[in-house]
Amino acid sequence: MDRAAKSRTAEKHESTARAAKPVRRLPKKPLPRSRYSREEITEIFTRFRQLRPEPRGELYHTNPYTLVVAVALSAQATDEGVNRATKHLFAVADTPQKMLALGEEKVRDYIKTIGLYRNKAKNVIALSQKLIDEFGGEVPRDRDQLTTLPGVGRKTANVVMSMAFGISTMAVDTHIFRIGNRLGLAPGKTPDEVEEILMRIIPEEFLYHAHHWLILHGRYTCKARKPDCEHCIIADLCKSKEKTCDVPAAIVPIPQQTLPGMN
Ligand code: SF4
Questions:
Q1: What is the value of pTM for the model shown?
Q2: CA dist 146 to 47, 70, 83, 230, 262, Å?
Q3: How many angstroms is it from 222 CA to the middle of ligand 1?
Q4: Quick one: fold of 64-165?
């Protein structure tokens, strides 16, 4: 074999070897572990269930469509502020068709007390149009389809899947993200990590209501600036460095909450 032929053969072998080399996938970084045992987690959610047997979200809506709109409007706004605006908006437009007939300018007027209202009005019109064009005017149940709607991210899709269609999801908002990390229940760096850890560690029997229990616990007890540990029903179980009391508050069941901003 002459030198040129040898070199061609060597190149061929080399390229075959390159092609045959298995693709090395980087192993998925393991998620941080919860600081709580399965028994402790069961006890925490048993108490949440005793306190609020039927928890529900606090955003006013009348059907899956108005729920999507309400959740999309609630980004960086309080549920109370959104409800004050949507109780009037949904009285005139509770379907995508009616919303389009109302038009962007009027939608803007209804929601102008909510932060980022100009952009949100645009999204409400665009998502209504998309629902009509691509989903027959119905809200899809699927997360991937929901997140194609303008203004709808993973968190919004999770809320809609849970509240409109009864699918167990974990919509990680600011309260759940804080609790996950403050307590070490689900110490994740991102909302997606916290979601994944919580979905893995919460026993099936609690999973459907878990995101509401956590949100309400964060909103009314384990508050951002100063957790109200003296009134916390899990103070004895909590492993947070920030806690100021070890004695759990008595569990007095709370009647179903009224929606804020609706009076
Ligand atoms: S004891 Fe305090 S820090 Fe722990 S969950 Fe209760 S309110 Fe939050």
A1: 0.83
A2: 33, 14, 22, 41, 27
A3: 5
A4: Endonuclease III; domain 1 (1.10.340)
